[in-house]
Amino acid sequence: MTSKVKNTFYQAESLPQGRWYMFRHSLRWVSDLPGHTLLILTSILMLVPLLYIISVSFQTMEQILQGGGNLPIPPTLEAYRYVLEKMNFSLYFRNTLVVVTLNLVGAFISNTLGAYGFARFRFPGREQIFALLLASLMLPFVVRLVPTYIMFYKLGWINSFLPLIVPSFFGSAFYVFLLRQFFTQLPNELFDAARIDGCDEVSILVRIVLPLSKPALATMFIFVAQNSWNDFMGPLLYLQRPQLRTLALALYAFRSAPQGIPTWNNLMAIVVLMTIPILILFALFQRYFIQGITMSGIKG
Amino acid sequence: MTIPFATSKPKRTAGKTITERWRSMTRFERREALFGYAFIAPVVLGFLIFEVGPILASLVLSFTDYDILSKDIDWVGLKNFARMFQEDLFYKSFNNTIYYCAIYIPLSLILALFLAVLANRAGRASTFYRTAIYIPTIIPSVGAAVAWVVILSPQFGLLNGVLKWFGIKGPGWFLSPVWAKPAIILMSLWVLGGIFVIFLAGLQGIPIEYYEAASIDGASSWISFWKITLPLMTPTILFNLVMDSIWAFQVFQESFVTTGGGPLRSTYFLSLYIYDQAFTYRRMGYASAISWVMFIVIMVFTVIILRSSRKWTFYGGSEQ
């Protein structure tokens, strides 16, 4: 990257103010009109399914069966009442929370240590090992599926949260990469000063590096939380007992349970309830969501 | 450098092996190195246990008839592979996967790039567009899949309801063998926000001076797109193409949750076939064999893209 200047057209004002340019610039909104129209249309197309999910969750089945595009008039909380009272929602919520929390702890410990190791110490084989780790991001998970299942089966971990939690304590290449990027940008003087003051390596990490790396850590936390909150494959394979289900699996089980007409309002109420925590995270930390996604594609 | 795997050629310090380097190190350097190894130990261990180990184990398993329950494992040689190429279901799921990839991958990349270019020119409103396009990706994917079943319900769903306003009788979507795959592609396109955001970030890294120079020379924005934007975006396109393809080949939840592979196996993808063989019929060996075939297909495809990319990616002139 040679320059980080954003090229939004508002900054085009720094262009030479020739008369021809002024003329073109004043007409700019006309040429941008089709673009804006298309974007607004796309935005609507993206948001309508969302609004529809919310709308259905506030309807009774009778209202829904009148056909698509109904509005919840009058809105009813019937579905939410059903989900919260009759569906063990709080149990599934608790299960999910346990998995997410322990994943956050595991990811925090392993990835900060790993990233710090790669960023701040010189050792033979460092670049090669790091390259291997990065290459593993391109490995399809399907190939690992069967042996990983057999491993956890032989350990007797089926029907426990361990298969969903333990791997996070061994880190993941993407987060190591993300944090390492950040750690390497910290000035060397900081570390030298700390070492001269007699700080050992672990307290340099805990007292100096981590407090300075809050943005990178926030990005990681959000991604880990989102991924384990949404994880479906893991619970599907390893949690067969109903009382262990996480929200994602409970939703799937509820959908595929044979009960005549699927009660869509209940299903959509679960989807809404499941999405709210992530939506709150997104509203508060949108910057970090975008940053994390961007990191995966741009820098390196 | 722009993409991780482009940097993967390790720098060998003047052709020395690791042991030679170790011998030539001072005491302090060795101490530092030991600390480094200690810090990365959990991650490397995890890499060996959860990545390298299972992939190798899967290769070994593919030559057995292992079923997880019985004690003894029989070597069956290439029988699993021979059987695979006689199964109709293998061809069916393979073709379905290719169908999905062939339509979804180009469509998602072109759409996402197109939208990113537009949003990048949109000034202050671009934050809104970015949020609107990204938001579907934060919905839990199982939830999204269930929601699409409702949206695409032939009689009472939203889409066919809207089509009815225009006097169009909508298809059966997930219930129709012809329309189930397009429905899944549609559903996947709804969450192109991730690719879109990566493109947008790439676009914002293009120096504005290039456009200024082009504008002074009288280039239209159409020409600017083809001569500036597209060449400078090729590294980002390459990254998205590779990662998107790897994901698309493994498409699972989108059909597992919505159709369960039906109707008439029209959305039965390779990953569903593997899942069924492994966890419904407990044919671990056979499932491993299929997953290796899939792995090889993905690898060949990725290598072709990366090889050909040397001809079509552009790293700002100075590098390459």
Describe this structure in a few short sentences.
By secondary structure, chain A is mainly α. Helices cover 70% and strands 0% of the residues of chain A.
CATH superfamily of chain A: MetI-like
Gross morphology of chain A is globular
Number of helices of chain B: 14
Show unreliable segments of chain B: 1-11
Please, could you describe this protein's structure?
The complex is a heterodimer of chains A (300) and B (320). Chain A has 300 residues and is mainly alpha-helical. Chain A has one domain: MetI-like fold (Orthogonal Bundle), CATH 1.10.3720.10. Chain A is built from 15 helices and no strands. In chain A, helix 5 crosses helix 12, helix 12 runs antiparallel to helix 15 and helix 14 crosses helix 15. The longest helix of chain A has 34 residues. Chain B is mostly helical. Chain B folds into 2 domains: 58 residues, no CATH class; 227 residues, MetI-like (MetI-like fold). Chain B contains 14 helices and no strands. The longest helix of chain B is centred in the N-terminal third of the chain and has 35 residues. In chain B, helix 4 packs across helix 13, helix 11 packs antiparallel against helix 14 and helix 13 runs antiparallel to helix 14. Chain B starts with 17 loop residues before the first helix and ends in an 8-residue tail after the last helix. The radius of gyration of chain B is 25 Å and the shape is flat. Chains A and B meet through helix 2, helix 5, helix 6, helix 7 and helix 9 of A and helix 1, helix 2, helix 4, helix 5 and helix 6 of B.
